[in-house]
């Protein structure tokens, strides 16, 4: 059973943090288990990390955060979706939940938030896992593609089965049927009077993306002092050459890749994802 913990983020925004398993137990009252903060990507939610969080709970206190505008966290006006706000929200979660020094695990946009936090507040972070997030600028064309993609969604969907089919098969961005992708998007829909719609505001998602898509983030990457693992799906959005350059730029970078996996690799290839990150966690998470 998931347990919600309320966190007060930047500007007083109410954030929902989640534990998906009981923390590990110890007979030593002075012993504390390493904290892990899991940060989803754009349009994601904390529950996308449920499988990873349950696996981690054997030896860690693993908490996943619904970031602002996502999941059950507040959805403030568009001016609130700055990079600084996302980072300060994550800082608030680490501090208010007593996770420091934490291992940060971020997917896509959540990975950018994680490495910006690690660069800004290194005392809060013992290790970092970056999953399928590029450090290079993507540019205006990419942002236009995303705006057009949102417009193509046939909302409202009549049923969750329609959500799964569209995102898993019919979406023009799908090269081949991908049931896991359909399930991923079904998890970010809620039932409204006229059908199923996303729990987030697409305009707010575009605003969030706008704050990082035009800029490169190599300089911040170079300022991350903790051990860092860069993980990519072979069929994901982060190419091998760029991932290896990210490892080179990081002061203590390491590299891993998952075969037969795309951008959503922790969600659709959980066992392979665990195998890729477990050796790193064994070294930095104790």
From TrEMBL:
Q: Which SUPFAM superfamilies match?
A: alpha/beta-Hydrolases
Query: Where is the AB hydrolase-1 domain positioned along the sequence?
Result: 36-274
Q: Which InterPro entries match?
A: AB_hydrolase_1, AB_hydrolase_fold, Carboxylesterase_BioH, Epox_hydrolase-like
Molecular-function GO terms, alphabetical: hydrolase activity
Any single Pfam family the record assigns to this protein: Abhydrolase_6
Q: Keywords in UniProt for this one?
A: Hydrolase
From the Swiss-Prot or TrEMBL record, give the protein name: Alpha/beta hydrolase
Name the species this protein comes from.
Streptomyces hyaluromycini
